[in-house]
Design brief:
Layout (H helix, E strand, L loop, with lengths): L3 E4 L7 E7 L5 E7 L8 E6 L3 E12 L5 E8 L9
Parallel strand pairs: 1-4
Antiparallel strand pairs: 2-3, 3-6, 4-5, 5-6
Length: about 80
Amino acid sequence: MSTTHDYTSPTWGHNITFITVSEDGKTASVVGHGLGVKVGDYLILANGPRATTRYRVVKLKRARPADCWRARIEFAPREEAPAC
């Protein structure tokens, strides 16, 4: 089961830094701090002052200390709610 992690408001020990981003913006390599992130999880990232974007973790490598990690992420649009 996947978990969603909110990284829209970076703080000490809970943040993401982009290392590389594909030209189309759909994949990226990031370095992050925060516990509990695993492959298949979703990361909610800020996209401008009021918008957010969702990415899925496709590859993860743990680092030291234990809350540090490197990841390959891919754009994962949210599913739209069915019309009533």
